[in-house]
Write the structure tokens for this entry.
Amino acid sequence: MARTYQRILLKLSGESLMGTKPYGIDSQRLGEYADEIIAVAATGVQVAVVIGGGNIYRGMEAEGAIDRVQGDHMGMLATMINSLALQSALEAKGHKTRLMSAIKMDTIAEPFIRRRAVRHLEKGRIVIFGAGTGNPYFTTDTAASLRAIEIEADVILKGTRVDGIYSADPEKDPAAVRYERITFTEVYDKGLNVMDLTAFTLCNENKLPIIVFDMNKPGNLRKVVAGERVGTLVEF
């Protein structure tokens, strides 16, 4: 397989791990994702991953006795649960990994240290970044953008359940048009929802392209890395 990118950061939503379940982690979906990631890593591409925690808990939904800061810390723990699950699935299939946490969890993960993360990637290990940025009020999209910039990734690959960016929600508007390529400025001007604004602006300011694609279609991740026209490329 030809490679367009040498180092990627794959962003997955927590909800994607639910598969057909209403909550939590679907082991079949987890295994499928592990297969896709390993297939790319086996070609020599350096792979880092950030997973959300929405299948377990979202800090921004905190209410009642739970304030937003506490809720966000709970959400960070949810991302660690998902990260541990993915690490286990990848290692069960024989690939070496490292899990790095933005908050101190010495018994289950390494602390995030940029130079160490880069060294792991250079050694061919799949690196999973958990616990978001370690700070409340920042989403895992922002964590993905920040980590991708820090490790000097070539691109952020945002795996979703739709096959790219549309002019409107394709699940609600059958007339929605899919973009094959779009600029950051056009996304701003059209008010399209790609990532939260903080994450998107980080990518824009640091000249980091984004590809939004359907992660649930087998082989799509490999096609994206090979440079095939899959999903939507957000460029400059």
Summary: The two ends are 27 Å apart (CA to CA). The mean pLDDT is 94. The chain has one domain: 7-162+186-194+201-235.
